[in-house]
Specification:
Blueprint: H1 2-7, E1 13-22, E2 27-37, E3 42-46, H2 53-61, E4 68-73, E5 76-77, E6 88-91, H3 103-114, H4 119-133, H5 148-160, E7 166-170, H6 178-195, E8 198-203, H7 206-212, E9 215-220, E10 223-228, H8 230-235, H9 240-245, E11 252-260, E12 265-268, E13 273-275, H10 278-283, E14 289-296, E15 301-303, E16 310-319, E17 323-330, E18 333-340, E19 350-355, E20 361-363
Parallel strand pairs: 3-8, 3-9, 6-7, 7-8
Antiparallel strand pairs: 1-2, 1-4, 4-5, 9-10, 11-12, 11-14, 12-13, 14-20, 15-19, 16-17, 16-19, 17-18
Helix pairs in contact: 3-4, 3-5, 4-5
This protein binds adenosine-5'-triphosphate.
Protein name: ABC-type D-xylose/L-arabinose transporter
EC number: 7.5.2.13
GO biological process, one term: carbohydrate transport
Amino acid sequence: DIGDSVDAGKGTIRMENIRKTFDNGEIVACADINLEINPTDFVVLLGPSGCGKTTTLRCLSGLDVPDSGHIYIGDEEMTYEKPKDRDLAFVFQSIALFPHMSVRKNIAFGLDMTTDMSKDEKNERVREVAEMLGIESMLDRSPDELSGGQQQRVSLGRAMVMEPAAFLLDEPFSALDAKLRDQMRVEVKQLQRELETAMIFVTHDQEEAMTLGDKIVVMDDARIQQIGSPYEIYNEPTNQFVASFIGSPSTNMLPVEVVSTGEGYDVVGDFFRFPLSDEQVDRYQGGEQGNVQLGVRPEYLQLDADEKLFDADVSVIEPHGARDAVHLTADDYDLTAVTPQEKIPGGTESVSVDFEIDQIWLFDGDGQRLL
Ligand code: ATP
């Protein structure tokens, strides 16, 4: 495999079969992590709390040493190298600026520690970075004279002056209020394009992941579940976890069986039955199966439909602007539809529902996709 990496760009980062456990193997934090990050990728590690995102990033940075597996940065194996020798810059959730130093000193800190650059060169680099971040006028202030967003820019600046092969960011905006967080996301995305340097960004917030990532790595239970573009993980989830975790409101899941009709297959639920389309039958080679989960996104539930699959009771309508989320109950199952307002029947408590059959997913007992 080292042969492959000779062709890789200088900054290409590869994690191969990384496994990391804690407490004598009792806690598996990461397993089978295989990830390739190109020099200009914006990669987001996304998953619920405790799924192993931070540990993956810490293994990459050298703050944790994996139990097994290999990490390459460019052509060099880095698995056991010290953090400072990896040419990676870490930006943490807690901002951790030095309160007694000026913003200028804070930004220059890494340069002062590790390089023998002239004072003028350092000043110039700090000025350039501060200009990119829009904080040039604040260089002589102390950190406590800055807002939270400005402080987070300073910590980004501290990473940027080092001109690393990649930036590692662990929930850097979680302490900021919602509006500032939105603004910082846009800024960081633009910054990443200007810098043309890889960023690996950890978050549990799928909206943040979707806005930032060109490549999203969805993790659960210490493992990578899917790697794909925002479009792919939303529209082509490879398993039930990804289908449920990505998207808000969540994908509706209903237990069904797949039953052969001789010519094709029917999907049979507790209160509906419909045939798979010809195209789906061509793709579906599974045969009859019980214990299958049907997944359908809220936007693919049609209300007040001409062809109805079943009736449901409307429980709550959540206004969202142009489209509303309509919570429904059918035969003891809770479902959610997201629908244009004109499709919401006024004054009625019961509504006819249809699925867009081409948009359904079927997951087998292990949560793997069948269609
Ligand atoms: P969060 O979003 O909550 O930060 P995460 O996805 O980043 O979660 P990790 O912090 O990587 O998850 O943790 C993965 C698992 O490893 C968790 O079960 C966690 O409790 C455990 N873990 C992490 N660090 C240690 C440690 N130093 N000692 C023991 N267990 C740890």
